[in-house]
Amino acid sequence: MTADTACLLLHGFGGSPFEMEPLVPGLTSLGCTVDLPTLPGHDSSVGEFRRTFFPDWLAYAEDRYLSLCRSHKLVIPIGFSMGGSLALLLAARHNPAGVVSLSAPVCLQPWFPFNARTLQLLFLPLLRYLRPVMSRRPPRPESRAIAPHRGYDSVNCLPQLYSLGKGLALLRKALPDIRCPALIMHDVRDSSSWPGSALAVAAKAASRDLTLIYTRMNEHITSHHMLTTHQETKEQVAAEVRNFVARISGGHGVRQYG
């Protein structure tokens, strides 16, 4: 393994690089260069966040990817949640050495089963004008103790959410263009990102080297979304990502988790 391999770590919607930090030690132990950027409008203020949209986040991620390509032989985009969706779009556009998608959505919410969240999304094109910022109950302390997170937890910015939905539509069309090796991970009980998204990626991507892993968190407190920081999955995820990167770049990974 040499510094010729770079990993671009992309965090999620309304989140921060904090979500990806648990992956850094394993990747740097391989000798990889790790780029852990903050997407535009994130980890700052709600006001800053409201001035950015999916095209801004994608363009920024693409600029960082292309910059790494100029200085490294192999570049692997790795993303969590929306960051995983961005990583998959980069893979479709640029055919990198490999791609990793963790808890990444391919749609905001499936139409079935129909529930309150589905109803809100149905009226999202109108609600984003009537109530662009909606308050929401922040996670309970015990939830954050199990699955740490840093981001915009107390509000939901509907224009930005609508923009994300449009971006995910682009991703669905681009899935057949993904030809590089891929690692896809999702929890079967994820209530923030539809678990069927992982199957959709596996079914539609053209990659002949694709690993699909579903985890199953046992607790009944969190949304089962935070694969990278959750007490039950963070070590497994870090090990799987490390081993995938090691294999793609010619190194040898060792499974050490649980």
Briefly, what is this?
The protein is α/β, with parallel strands linked by helices. It contains 10 helices and 8 strands. The chain has helices spanning 24-29, 46-49, 54-71, 82-94, 116-122, 124-130, 141-146, 158-174, 196-204, 234-248; strands at residues 5-10, 33-35, 74-80, 99-102, 133-135, 155-157, 182-187, 210-215.
Architecture blueprint of SSEs:
Blueprint: E1 5-10, H1 24-29, E2 33-35, H2 46-49, H3 54-71, E3 74-80, H4 82-94, E4 99-102, H5 116-122, H6 124-130, E5 133-135, H7 141-146, E6 155-157, H8 158-174, E7 182-187, H9 196-204, E8 210-215, H10 234-248
Parallel strand pairs: 1-2, 1-3, 3-4, 4-7, 7-8
Antiparallel strand pairs: 5-6
Helix pairs in contact: 3-4, 4-8, 6-8
| Overall body shape | globular
Strand and helix order: EHEHHEHEHHEHEHEHEH
Q: On the 0-100 scale, what is the average pLDDT?
A: 93
Count of alpha/pi helices? 10
Q: Give the total of beta strands.
A: 8
Largest sheet: 6 strands, parallel
Summing up helix and strand content along with how strands pair, one would put the structural category as: alpha/beta
Which residues form runs of ≥5 with pLDDT under 50? 252-258
User: How far apart are the termini?
Assistant: 25 Å
What radius of gyration results from the CA coordinates? 17 Å
For the largest beta sheet, what order do the strands appear in spatially? 2-1-3-4-7-8
Which percent range describes the beta-strand content?
5-15%
Helix content: 25-40%
